[in-house]
Amino acid sequence: MRNSSDQEPQSCARRPQCRKAVDMLDLLIEFFDDGERWIKGKLDDGAGNRCLVGALRDIRERAQSPWYPTRVYLLNAMQRSPKAGWTGLISFNDRCRDFGELREVILQARKLAVADIEKHQRDVPTSDLLAPSPGDGPRLTYRMSRPLCARKRRKDDPPPRC
Fold it and tell me: Does the pTM exceed 0.70?
């Protein structure tokens, strides 16, 4: 069995879908609505509230995007956390005292992902960055255009696009 600490986000950042990890982390913070929709102990409570893994699954299904890179960045951010005794995303979620603790890890994972993207951009010629890859779709930005949770999602809002 492969240890999650053996997984390198740097190698992941070189694949186009890994740039979506930052967007997934932004959607994750937005989904939790400053902790209002965060739960512990189960994936989904039937009322739209979810734990970390439940929210990742929900966002992944709506965005039709892989969550492997997001998971790697979260695990690496969790390793930097002083919280001990966790063995994965679910146990970390359930051992958090409050949402603030989980939010710190999500934001740390985002910082790691952005740093990897920026490092990769410095190492790659500009012409390679601008050339679209087959199946890449539209280029995603990795800087936030507005503060997280600036407003609550309304029923008539379209689903988030990745």
Answer: no
Report the distance separating Cα 82 and Cα 88, nearest Å.
14
Q: How far is CA 37 from each of CA 42, 55, 131, 148, rounded to the nearest angstrom?
A: 13, 9, 39, 15
DSSP H or E segment with residue 159: none
DSSP SS3 for 44: strand
Query: What is the distance between the alpha carbons of residues 148 and 35, in angstroms, rounded to a whole number?
Result: 12
Q: Give the integer Cα–Cα distance in Å for 141 and 58.
A: 22
Query: What are 55-71's pLDDT values in tens digits?
Result: 999 998 887 766 678 99
Q: Residue for token digits 């890449």?
A: 136
- Angle CA 65–12–90, to nearest 5: 60
Compute CA 112 distance to the chain's CA centroid, rounded to the nearest angstrom: 11
Residue 154, CB-side half-sphere exposure with 13 Å CA sphere: 3
**Residues in a beta bridge with 44:** 50
